[in-house]
Amino acid sequence: MRKPIRLPTLLLHPLKPAPPDDAHFEPESEGYLDELIEEDRRRAIRRRILWGVGVGLAAAAIVLAGWLGYRWTQMHYFVGVSDGNVAIFQGVQQSIGPISLSHVYQTTSISIDDLPLFQRDSVEATISADSLRDAHEIVDRLAASAGD
Q1: Which of 28, 65, 111, 114 is least surrounded by Cβ atoms within 10 Å, i.e. has the fewest?
Q2: Rounded to an integer, what is the distance from CA 76 to the centroid of its chain?
């Protein structure tokens, strides 16, 4: 059995002359390199400014979101215990690490010991209120039951 004859690749695809390279550029002025360096510096400065503005905007967005979140928490109230007395708290019953998201808004003269056991347990576990007015109504009901 005979091997097929293979023609050399150059016979099938002869070398074509390379087209002239138009990409070669000769600067017209002698200060061309200095202009390129200066343009590169301007681009670097613009890039730094854009990155700085971007980071600043991102930081501002994070601070704004945190502030708005905190303001939202301060629109809520609940009834709980402060120093052995019933108190109205402003905020939510959570904390983020060492930061408490609530504080005592108003302390009453109702001692937790004067409340019936069920209400004492409820106040110690905190009672959520829909508004400040609702919190005052809860305190008024607790005061009425403490007098019994």
Answers
A1: 28
A2: 22
* Global pTM value: 0.62
Average pLDDT per consecutive 10 residues, the chain (148 residues; last block may be shorter) = 65 61 67 86 94 96 94 92 93 88 92 91 92 94 82
* Helices 117-124 and 132-146: angle between axes, nearest 10 degrees: 150
For the chain, the three-class secondary structure string (H helix, E strand, C coil) is CCCCCCCCHHHHCCCCCCCCCCCCCCCCCCCHHHHHHHHHHHHHHHHHHHHHHHHHHHHHHHHHHHHHHHHHHCCCEEEEEECCEEEEEEEEEEEECCEEEEEEEEEEEEEHHHCCHHHHHHHHCCEEECCHHHHHHHHHHHHHHHCC
State how far the Cα of 120 lies from the Cα of 118, in Å rounded to an integer: 5
